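Listing S7. Sequence submitted for prediction.
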Amino acid sequence: MCTVVILRRPDHDWPLLIGANRDEMRNRPSQPPMRHWADRPHVVAGLDEEAGGTWLGINDDGVVACVLNRFGTLGSHPDFRSRGELPLEALEHAEAEIAAEAFVDLNPEAYRPFNMVIADYKTAWWIKNDGMTIQTVEIEDGLSMLSAHDLNDKEKSDRLQLHLPRFRSAPAPDPNSDDWMSWTALLSSRKSIGDARSAMQIETDFGFETVSSSLLAIPKPWEKERKPIWKFSPGKPSDTPFDDVQI
């Protein structure tokens, strides 16, 4: 039940900001974001050692792609392809819109249900597979959140009901001054309603927890002095510092 926060500001020097917590079984092995794939030298992404794919990555064109499980579909299944291959496929494209269009023809029955975000400085897209159909929806300007249910769905998601208003009212991070304090505090929040898994940073008694956290900023491409930023915490964001990823 990972969570992604997307802030779109088309007229800003940093038109795309993303915050993401990865929630997974803590014994599932992974490696931090790097250029792990010899056949994909243009991709920087975290590596899921169990299935060989990723949960979040960026390519040299500034396209970001991430995948999330939909509700009730945690883990792999021998009858389905790994969802971790999907961000890698998206990152074969130089533009988010073209990548999103490519998913229209995806066979929804080949994978367990998933949500995806594909974004760059120009556009951002939510890809939904409910197991029967693939839906592609453009994400509007402003701040949105996605977890195990639909985009910005506060009715079904206690996490979004609690934390979406908090992110929307918080000051936006300032990549120019390396100020991410508002979002790191929220990504670390253990505040919950009902189920403890409605917190942003979660822990359970069966080993499922927040295992890493990311902060990304994508600049306008004509701002040559600015490059994409990825800050990565390889653990719970409340306890583990965010370090810069080499992009």
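Caption to Listing S7: primary sequence and predicted structure tokens for the chain studied. The helical segments are 85-90, 96-102, 158-169, 181-187. Residues 158-169 form the longest helix (12 residues).
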